[in-house]
Amino acid sequence: MLLFLLRRLGAGVALVWVIATLTFFLTSLTGSDPARRILGPTAGLDQVAAKSAELGLDRPVLERYWDWLTGALRGDLGTSWFTNEQIGGLIGDALPVSLSLVVAATVLTAAVSIVLGVVAAVRGGWLDGLLQGISTVAFAVPNFLVGLVLSLVFAVELGLFPALGYTAFTDDPGAWLASITLPAIALAIGAIATVATQTRGSMIDVLQQDYVRTLRSRGLPTRSVLLKHALRNAAPASLTVLSLQFIALISGAVVIEKVFGLNGLGERATSAAGQGDVPLVLGIVVVAVVVVVLVNLLVDVVLGWLNPKVRIA
Amino acid sequence: MSILSDAGPAGPAPVDAVAAPARAGAVRRLLRNPVAVVALVWLVAVAVLALLAPLLTSQSPTASKITEALAPMGGDHPLGTDGVGRDVWAQLLYGARTSLIGSLIVVAVSLLLGLPAGVLAGYRRGRFDAVASWVANLLMALPAIIVLLVVLAQFGRSTALAMAVFGVIIAPGVFRLVRSSVIAVREELYVDAARVAGLSDARIMRRHVLPVVVPPTVIQVSQLLGIAIVIQAGLEFLGLGSANQASWGGMLSDAFQNIYAQPRLLLWPALAIVLTVTAFSLLGNALRDALGVSGRVPRVRRRQRTDAPPVVAAGGEVPAAPDVPDALLVLDGLRVAYPTPEGTEREVVHGVSLTVRRGEVLGLVGESGSGKSQTAFAVLGLLPPQARTSAARMTFDGTDLRGLSPAAMNRLRGRRIGYIPQEPMSNLDPSFTIGSQLTEPMRHHLGLSKDEARTRALQLLDRVGIPDPARVFASYPHQVSGGMAQRVLIAGAVSCDPDLLIADEPTTALDVTVQAEVLDLVRELQAERQMGVVLVTHDFGVVADVCDTVAVMRDGRIVESAPAERLFADPQHEYTRMLLGSTLEDTPARGALAGAGLHPEEIAPAPLTSGGPR
Amino acid sequence: MRRSLVAATAASVLLLTAACGGSSGESSGSGDSTELTLAAVTPPSSFAVGEMAQSGPEDHYYQAVYDTLLELDEDGQPVANLVTEWSYDETNTRLSLTLRDDVTFSDGTAFDAEAVKANLEAAKGRSGEAGSALGAISSVEVVDATHADVVLSRPDPALLQSLSRSSGYVASPAALASPDLATAPVGSGPYVLDADASTAGSTYVYTRNEDYWNAEDFPYDSLEIRYLDDTTAILNGLRSGEINGVAGGTSDVTTGAENAGLTVTTYTNGGIEGVYLWDRAGALVPALADVRVRQAINFAMDRETIVETVKGGLGEPTVQVFGPNSPAYDESLEDTYEFDVDRAKELMAEAGYADGFSMTLPDFSPVYPDEQAAMTEAFASLGIEVTYSPITGDQVVGSIIGGQWPANFFNLTAGSPFEMIGLTLTQQSPFNPFKNADPEVDRLVQQAQTTSGDEQTAALQELNRYLVDQAWFAPWDAAEGTFITTTDVAVTAVPGVSVPPLTGFEPAGS
User: Fold this and answer.
1) Which CATH number describes the domain made up of B358-381+405-582?
2) Which of A54, A57, A83, A281 should we substitute to test contact with C (largest number of C Cβ atoms within 10 Å)?
3) In what residue span(s) does the ABC transmembrane type-1 domain sit (chain A) (predicted)?
4) pTM for the predicted model, two decimal places
C-alpha cells in the first residue's frame, strides 16, 4: 500500500511537471506583447521595450523556463506582471476561497447524493422515477444559471445571504458559511445529479448481492444492512465518481466565482488568462493540478481503506 | 425505507431474466420507449430547425437593430428582440446550430482520439497501453475550464477551438471505456479461439471487438453531446465564445444584463439548453436499456404482504397441512406471484402446504425452477419486493407470519430462524471481517458485549470445524476458502440458537470432499440443538443422508410428501419415481445411505440439472 | 437536493414577480454613513509612483492613500491641493510651485520641496502612464522647503492636468526606493491601507488617516474597494447594499441599475467614442485614402440614434475628437455630417465605390457588442462588408498600434486637447498607426503648442475644423460616464475625468 502510494505520488509529481511545462511553453511562445498591455495605450515604444527587458522577455525562452522551474521548486512562483504582487501570495489569498467553495460543494454533493441515491435505490417506484427525472434536469441546467437565480432571489430580493464576496472562516465562521452557501449549492447541483445517479446504481447492484440477503436473514436492522453494509460496498464506485466530479467542480467554480464575486482561483484565472499575466496563469495551473493530484491521492487512500483486498495486498 | 425490512430487492427473482437482447432489435426497442421517442423527436426537431434556420426566419441572428431593442413578441419578431435589438427567434435557431456543431466537434474529436487509442491499447496492451493510459490520466487531472481559459487567451476566442480542446480533454473518458470493453472481450475465450484459428487481426476486430465496443460508446456519445452543450454555454457566458455567432450561452449572458428590464429573455435560451441536454441524457438512458448494456433495475413496488384472502387449496392431491401439536412451521396454501411486464401476474408457487416439527428435518426437493427456493424465501420474508405472496395459513411457533411488521420479522430472523445460503463466497460481505459479520447479529439479538460476542464467535468457529478460529475471525472473506466460508455461514446461521434452520442447497457449490463434512455438520448441529430444518435441495443423496420427511416439488406444487424412508422405499408419484430413478442411474457412490435402504455407492450428490447460480 | 429544488422553484417564481413588479427591492445599505464600499472593475496595478494608471477605475485605490500636487475643480480645471500656488515663466519651460507646509506622510516624513523633487524624478523614470506623462520634465530645483521649480525641456500645455491626476501623486520619499511601494503605499492621503484587513488583488480596506489636513472633504471614516468584474455580480451587490458604488461601464449595466432603483450619476468623462479611421493612407484598404469615402462613413453614422440606443443616452453626439469642454471644440462644426445615407452613397459613388468594399476589423463584440453592432449596421448601409477577426484582450492595443486594422471602434480619452494631439495626431503618436503626415495638421499643432491664450485657442479650433473636414475620424459622441450608487450615497463628478474622485462622495441628503 505504501509503495503504491509512493508510486502514485511520483506519478503526480511528474504530472504536475509535464502540465506546468506545457503551459509554460504554450503561454510563452504564443503570447503577444505583455509589456504593451501592462503599460497601456499611451506608452511609447522605448518604454515598452524597457518593460519587456524588465520582465526578462528578451531572454531565450529556455533560460526563462529554467529560471521559472528552479524558482517554482524553491516555492517561488514569481511576481505578477500586472499587480506586482507575489504569485504565492495572490494564490495563497485565492486558494482558501476556491477550496472552501469546492470542498463545501463536494461535501454537499456527497451528503445529498448518498441520501438521494440510497432512497432512490431502496424505495424505488415513483420516488425513484421522480429523483431520476430531477437528476436528469439538474444535470442539464448550467450552474451559472442556478447561481444567478439563487443570488437574485435569496441574496438580492430576500437578503438572506450576501450576494457577493467571501468572508474568511477565521474572521467569522458564520459569515463564512453564509458567503459560500449559495455558490456551493449552485456548484453542487450538477455534481449531485451525477453522483446520486451513480450511488443509486451501485446501491441497487449491491442490494442484489447474495450477502445482503444473508445479512437480512440474520435479522439485522434495516439501518445496519443499508447504511453499514450496503453503503460501504457501494461507496468505492460513488467515491470514484465523486473524485472525478471534484475536478469538474474546480472547473465549475471558475464560473460560479464570477457570478458571486468571489475572488478565488477561478476569478484569478479568468483575469490572468485574459490579461496574459503568464506567471500568474502558470502558478494557478500548477496549484490547481497539485490540488487535483493530492485529492486523487487521498481518494486512493480512502479507496484502499474501503476495499480490504487492496488494503491487505 | 421500511420496505426493505420486509422484502428488499435482494431475493431471487424467479421471472426469467431478460435474455441478453440481440442488437438487431435495439432500434425497435428504442422506438417502443415513449421517453426515447419524445427525446428523439425533440433532438430531431432542434436539428431540423437549426438546419433550416435561414428558411424559418428572414432575420439575421447577429444584426442588431438598435432602434428595436427589447421589442415585444409579435410582428417581425415572433419572440421579440434582445437588448441590442437582435431577433430572439433567429438567435435561438442559429444558436442551435452553434450548440449542435460545437457538441459534434467535441464528440468527433474525443472519438477520433479515444476510440482508436482505446481499441489499440486494449487489444495490444503493452507499451502503447501504458503510454496511452498515462496520457489519459494526465488529461483527466486537468480542470477543463482553466485549460480552456489559457488556450483561448493565447489563440483568441473561438467556439470551435474551445470545443475541439474540450474534446481532447474529455477523450480519456472514451478511451477508458473502449479500452476496458476491449480488454474484457479480449480475455474471453472466443477471441483466443479466433486467434488460434488464424484469423486476421482486422477480422477479429470487426467480428468480435467492435460489436462489444460500439454499444457503450454510442451511449457515451449521447451523454457527451449533452455535456458539451452545457460546457459551451459556460464558456459563452464567460465571454469566450466566437463573437459573430449566435449562441444560447451568449443569449443567457445577454439576458442577465437585461434581467430587470426584460426577464422573459432568460426563458428561451434556458429552456433550449435544459431541454436539449435533458433529451440527450434521456436518449442515452434509453439507448442503454435498448442495447441491454446494463440491466434495468426492476420496478420496485410496495409489496402486499400475506394478508390476502384465504386461497383454495390447489388440487385434491395436495394434502392440507394437518394440525400438528408441536408444529414449528406451518404453511397452508402458500402462493407466490410476480407481476409481468404485460401487467398480468405470473404465479410461481401454487398453494404449497407443509409442516415442520421441532427437531424434524424436512427435505424440500425439486428441480431448479420448481419453486422450492421461493417457498423457503417466502418463509424468511426475503422475496424480492415486487413478489406477491398469499397463504391461508403461515405460522412459526404459533406466530402468524402474515402481516408481521418488519421489526417483528427481524426479531424472528437470525434469532429464531436461521438461514444457510447456497453459494458461500458471495454470501459474505467482502468489506467486513468474518468476525464482525459473525458478532453483529449476536450483539444485536442477544445483547452480548463485544468481548462476549467474540468469545462465542470463536467457539462457534471452532465448533464448525475451523482449525484456526482466531485467524479466520480476523480474516476478510476473500482470504478464506469456499468450504471454510460455508462453515462460517453455518456458524452464523446457528449463532443465536434458532429453532428453525432454513438451508438453501448448502452444499451445492462445494467440492465433493467438503460436501459430506458440511452436511454432517448441519446434521450434528440439528441434533445437538433440536432444531427444525427445512433443507432445500435437488439432491436425493442429501435427502437420504439427513432428512426425516421429504416434500417433492414440481412446477410450484408439492406433488408428494412423506417420511424419508417411506418415500425412498415406495415413491407414490410418477415424478418422484423419475427423480429417484435418474439419481440412481447417473451417480457415483457415496456413503451413509444405509438408512434409506440403498447402497451407498449408488447415491451421489451430482445435481439433477445444472442449475447455475442465479 | 430536494430542498434546493424547492428553493429553485420558489426562486423562479420570485424572480418573475420581482421582475414584473419592477424594482421592488429597496437598497438595504447599512445607512451608516461612515463606511463606503466601492467596486472597481480592475485591481490596482501598482502603488508605485510613476507606475500608476493615468485615470480610470483604478483611481480610487490611489486617491485613498495619495494626495496629488494639484486637484481638478468641478469644471475640470487645475486648482490648489498640495501645491498652493503655481506659475510659468514667459517661455513656458519653468514652473514654479509653492507648497503646503503642514503635511506629513503616514510614515512621519514631512512633505516638502525635496519630496516633490524626489517623487517627480522617480516617477519620470518609470514606465507607467503616470511616468510617461512627465516626459517634458528635465529637472526639479529645490528653492526652499516650500518652493520648488520644475524645469521643462519643452513647453507642455498638458502638464498641469497631469499633475492633477496620477502623475501628481506624492509618496513618502523614504519609501520611494523600496520595491515594496508597489504593493504597500506610503502617502499623505486621507486614508491608509489596512494591509491586514485587505486581500491583495481582491479587497482593499482603508482606514482614516487621523492626521489628515483636509479631512472634511472625505466624510467617510473607512473605505473598502472590491475588485469585481462581473456586471451581474456587481448589480446584485448594489441591489443588496453590499457595495455602494461602481463606475457604470456599459449602457446595459446602467439601464439595469436604473431598472433596479439605484442612483445613476452621469458626467462627461473625456472620452471620444466612435470609429477611428486609422488607414487614411490606404495601406490596407485603399478606399479609406479617399476623403469622400471617409466623409461618406461620417454621413452614414446616425449619431443621435446610436447615442440614444447603444449608449442609452450616455453621450453627447459629436463629429469632433475634442470634447465640448475642450478649448478646441467648435459648436458650429456639429452639423457638418448630419445623418444622410443618400448623401453618403453619392459620395461613395463619386469615389468609385458605389458597390462598397470589404475590410477586416478586430472583433470587440465581447466588450462592446452594441457598439460593434451599430458600426456594422452603418457600414452595411454603404455596402461596406466587415469581417471580424477574433482577438484577445491583451492583443487589442498592440494590434491597433501595430497597424493591423484599417479602422475600429475605439474610445480615446484625453484630459486636454494636447493630450489628444499627442495620442493620435503626430507621427510619434501611438494612435497614428500608419504614421499619417499632413503638413497642415503639423503646422497647426506646432502653432498651438508654441502659443498661448486666444492665439492658442484659435490654432486648436482651426486644427479641429481641418480634421473634421478631412474626416480623419468618424466620432460618434463625447462619452458620458455613469457612476452607479446605492440611494444613500451622492456623487459629484468632474468633467473629463473618467471616474468621480473620492472627494465627490458623500452621504445622500447631507
Assistant:
1) 3.40.50.300
2) A83
3) 95-303
4) 0.77
